[in-house]
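Teaching assistant's notes for section 4

Start the section by putting this record on the projector. Ask students to predict, before seeing the second block, whether Sodium:proton antiporter will look compact or extended. Collect guesses on the board.
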Amino acid sequence: MYEHLALVALFIFFYSLVAGRLERTPISGPIVYVLFGLLLSAPFLGLPPRTVSAHVLRGLAELTLALVLFTDAANADLNVLRSSSKLPRRLLLIGLPLTILLGFLGAAVIFPGLTLLEAAVLATMLAPTDAALGQPVVENAAVPADIRDGLNVESGLNDGICVPFLFIFLVLSVDTTGHIAPLGLALRLVLEEIGIGAVTGASVTLLGVLAVNISKKQGWISDEWSQLTGMALALSCFATAQWLGGSGFIASFTGGLLFGYLAQPHKKLMLSAAVDAGDIFGVVTWVAFGYAVVSIAVEGFEWRYLIYAVLSLTLFRMLPVWLSLRHMDLNRGSRLFIGWFGPRGLASIVFAIIVLEEKLPGGRTILMTTVCTIILSVFAHGFTAEPLAAIFGARRRAAPVKES
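Reveal the predicted structure now:
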């Protein structure tokens, strides 16, 4: 354990020294993280091969996703949904369901060995986009602000929206009780998880923000300790909901949305530690993913996995985006650009680990396909983000062609 901890800690330290320089190149952070994880699994290092237990990996990934869901939801600019809501609203309410539908149909054709429910699980796992992988685009001033805001809101909210759908398909897939109709059982369990999760997340956050406001009025809390309140609330939402039998992810997502609304004056300060912790946990999760999962997937590679991965990142994403934005004031280049920048990352990793522990009959196919898609996305979106953003921004400024 200590040799792994030492190597990962040293990696984070040295990477932090050059991160600013690497951000100005096509080499994204997740590319480096995954490659380092693969390096750790190399025989010549003499480390025990792939000794990360599924339980530890799932715990790490779940805590990471809980922080990311909370902070992404809290930082999502809901004013965008009110003032220029058409783009993110269409991406979330039309594009996302169509992406899941196309992914489901594609999985059913490419992987005939999967059940229809397993095909739906795979499609849902690969539907959400990754806010961190999309940062080179949403933070690039060359890209018009409306498109950056739309992509940022989409990536911040779509993983939370996908959670209940994944739970429904999983419960239906693994039901073996025979006592209740599977659909009725799935709906009851999912409604319980969603309901308990949403109420818990909202309640914990509401009470927490009220307590913070009282403390600030009394002068009891310092700025240094204020930085920890967001992280503590995020983890409290997740753990309390899980403890009560609800969905910790729904609780984190709901709590983050409410926190972002209630804590406006002090939101940035209160979320700073949560964002930093999410970044560190994210690095460790990506390294563990490369070390314990990717190296296994390489050994069992099949061309069908790559075919589905390519379609998932192109047709299954880009066609729904194109259709959902048909009646907007955007030209073809804008629609293609938005459709291409839907990177897959942390949410899909966590979903894959959860599905892996469910031991579905088609679990190996689902895992391998998900890993292949994530790796392809990490490299394809990482290397194209900066150059395509610059080209797109220049063309948009030079010739803003509009069409209905």
